[in-house]
Amino acid sequence: LSLLDIVLCLTVIPKVLAIFWFDLRSISFPACFLQMFIMNSFLTMESCTFMIMAYDRYVAICKPLQYSSIITDQFVARAAIFVVARNGLLTMPIPILSSRLRYCAGHIIKNCICTNVSVSKLSCDDITLNQSYQFVIGWTLLGSDLILIVLSYFFILKTVLRIKGEGDMAKALGTCGSHFILILFFTTVLLVLVITNLARKRIPPDVPILLNILHQLIPPALNPIVYGVRTKEIKQGIQNLLRRLC
């Protein structure tokens, strides 16, 4: 999750800052399509990672005695390969389809980043296949991950409600706290972005662009904060640092 957040930020934020600080607006076609590929693939990789983390929480709470035999090093390695292979291969056609279009309607993208929609609109060719593929793949990957996450938490909640030991319920829910908060941030920003794009005619054109950039920035910025605050060792380290400063 940390690696995905770092790559997403390094793909988007430096170029956005170069545009606003130094007015460096130009970008080559290969760099634009590479940025498009990384944004699409790593965004779905992050969603898939959340799904696997939800399964990890499900096994930890619903099958605690079998946790060490299910969540092994081999499982983690296979899960990592699955995350990269599934999302990398299925999102790769998006920039490929965009690169095969003829661009004769100008070379000025009405965005700060190379999104598929912003780039393909500059083409004189039919972009129905391009947009349809991104729509289907995006909703299939993100939708399936979200459904599996919801199912995991359904079984987790079902198991937690059966716990009768004092404090055990709070401990079990605390195990899922950080993960649930991160999913909430991720899906909320994504849903707001989708809704603003659907209602594009009713809102200023700059709003979807701003939300698109914030979606690349807010979850990666909040992920380490949420996990850091809830980690005992990091809490103690911050407290020790504050004591020294005081």
Structure explained in plain terms:
The chain is mainly α and 246 residues long. The chain has a single domain, classed as Rhodopsin 7-helix transmembrane proteins (Rhopdopsin 7-helix transmembrane proteins, Up-down Bundle), CATH 1.20.1070. Helices cover 78% and strands 0% of the residues. It is built from ten helices and no strands. Helix 2 packs antiparallel against helix 5 (93-99), helix 2 (29-62) packs parallel to helix 7 and helix 2 (29-62) runs antiparallel to helix 8 (168-198). The chain is globular and about 70 Å long. The model has no long low-confidence stretch (mean pLDDT 85).
What layout of secondary structure does this protein have?
Blueprint: H1 2-22, H2 29-62, H3 67-70, H4 73-91, H5 93-99, H6 116-120, H7 128-160, H8 168-198, H9 206-229, H10 232-245
Describe the structure in brief.
The protein is mostly helical. It is built from ten helices and no strands. The radius of gyration is 21 Å and the shape is globular.
Please state the overall shape, judged from the principal axes of the Cα atoms. Answer: globular
How many independent structural domains?
1
Beta fraction: under 5%
| SSE string | HHHHHHHHHH
Q: Please state the CA-atom Rg, rounded to the nearest Å.
A: 21 Å
What is the helical fraction, as a range of percent?
over 70%
What can be said about the biggest beta sheet?
A: none
CATH superfamily label? Rhodopsin 7-helix transmembrane proteins
- Secondary structure class reads mainly alpha
| Spans where pLDDT lies below 50 across 5 or more residues | none
Annotation, overall tally of beta strands = 0
The appropriate CATH architecture is Up-down Bundle
CATH-defined topology: Rhopdopsin 7-helix transmembrane proteins
Number of helices: 10
CATH class: Mainly Alpha
Mean pLDDT: 85
Distance between the first and last residues' Cα: 34 Å
